[in-house]
Design a protein that fits this description.
Layout lengths: L5 E7 L11 H17 L3 E4 L1 H7 L10 E10 L2 E6 L5
Parallel strand pairs: 2-4
Antiparallel strand pairs: 1-3, 3-4
Length: 88
Protein backbone atom coordinates (compact mmCIF):
# COMPACT_ATOMS: atom_id res chain seq x y z
CA UNK A 1 0.00 0.00 0.00
CA UNK A 2 1.24 3.46 -0.90
CA UNK A 3 2.30 5.76 1.94
CA UNK A 4 0.09 8.85 2.41
CA UNK A 5 2.58 11.74 2.65
CA UNK A 6 0.53 14.56 1.11
CA UNK A 7 -3.23 14.34 1.04
CA UNK A 8 -6.20 16.70 0.66
CA UNK A 9 -9.56 16.05 2.24
CA UNK A 10 -12.81 17.84 3.03
CA UNK A 11 -13.95 17.73 6.64
CA UNK A 12 -17.64 18.28 7.39
CA UNK A 13 -18.38 19.83 10.79
CA UNK A 14 -21.99 18.63 10.99
CA UNK A 15 -21.39 16.88 14.32
CA UNK A 16 -19.69 19.97 15.76
CA UNK A 17 -23.03 21.78 15.66
CA UNK A 18 -24.62 19.38 18.16
CA UNK A 19 -24.66 20.52 21.76
CA UNK A 20 -23.84 23.93 23.17
CA UNK A 21 -23.04 26.79 20.84
CA UNK A 22 -19.96 28.03 22.69
CA UNK A 23 -18.23 24.63 22.39
CA UNK A 24 -18.35 24.44 18.58
CA UNK A 25 -14.80 25.61 17.93
CA UNK A 26 -13.33 23.20 20.46
CA UNK A 27 -15.31 20.31 18.96
CA UNK A 28 -14.30 21.24 15.40
CA UNK A 29 -10.58 21.29 16.26
CA UNK A 30 -10.94 17.99 18.11
CA UNK A 31 -12.75 16.51 15.09
CA UNK A 32 -9.84 17.45 12.81
CA UNK A 33 -7.37 15.75 15.17
CA UNK A 34 -9.49 12.60 15.46
CA UNK A 35 -10.08 12.28 11.70
CA UNK A 36 -6.37 12.66 10.90
CA UNK A 37 -5.42 10.17 13.62
CA UNK A 38 -7.97 7.66 12.34
CA UNK A 39 -7.10 7.95 8.64
CA UNK A 40 -3.33 8.20 8.90
CA UNK A 41 -2.48 6.46 12.18
CA UNK A 42 -0.88 9.63 13.55
CA UNK A 43 0.25 9.99 17.12
CA UNK A 44 0.84 13.75 16.93
CA UNK A 45 -1.28 16.14 14.85
CA UNK A 46 -0.18 19.77 14.43
CA UNK A 47 -2.91 22.18 13.33
CA UNK A 48 -1.86 25.35 11.52
CA UNK A 49 -3.06 28.54 13.26
CA UNK A 50 -4.36 29.85 9.91
CA UNK A 51 -6.68 26.83 9.71
CA UNK A 52 -8.02 27.45 13.21
CA UNK A 53 -8.54 31.13 12.37
CA UNK A 54 -10.39 30.29 9.13
CA UNK A 55 -12.79 27.95 10.95
CA UNK A 56 -13.82 30.73 13.35
CA UNK A 57 -13.70 33.82 11.15
CA UNK A 58 -17.34 34.64 12.11
CA UNK A 59 -16.75 34.12 15.81
CA UNK A 60 -16.29 31.27 18.23
CA UNK A 61 -19.86 30.05 18.03
CA UNK A 62 -20.44 30.57 14.28
CA UNK A 63 -18.04 28.17 12.58
CA UNK A 64 -17.97 27.13 8.93
CA UNK A 65 -19.79 23.98 7.82
CA UNK A 66 -16.97 22.40 5.78
CA UNK A 67 -13.28 22.98 5.31
CA UNK A 68 -10.75 21.60 2.81
CA UNK A 69 -7.48 20.67 4.49
CA UNK A 70 -4.09 19.49 3.27
CA UNK A 71 -2.39 16.88 5.44
CA UNK A 72 1.39 16.56 5.19
CA UNK A 73 3.66 14.06 6.90
CA UNK A 74 6.53 15.88 8.62
CA UNK A 75 7.99 13.13 10.78
CA UNK A 76 7.49 9.63 12.11
CA UNK A 77 3.75 9.52 12.91
CA UNK A 78 3.63 13.33 12.99
CA UNK A 79 1.33 15.20 10.60
CA UNK A 80 0.75 18.86 9.81
CA UNK A 81 -2.79 19.94 8.89
CA UNK A 82 -3.09 23.15 6.87
CA UNK A 83 -5.83 24.97 5.03
CA UNK A 84 -5.89 23.82 1.39
CA UNK A 85 -6.04 26.75 -0.98
CA UNK A 86 -7.40 26.46 -4.51
CA UNK A 87 -4.76 26.99 -7.16
CA UNK A 88 -5.94 28.66 -10.35
Amino acid sequence: MKEKDNFEMVINFKRAFMGRRNQRTKRAIKMIRNIVQRHFGAEKVIIDPLLAKSITYNGRDKIVRKVRVAVKKIGEKTYLVRLALKSE
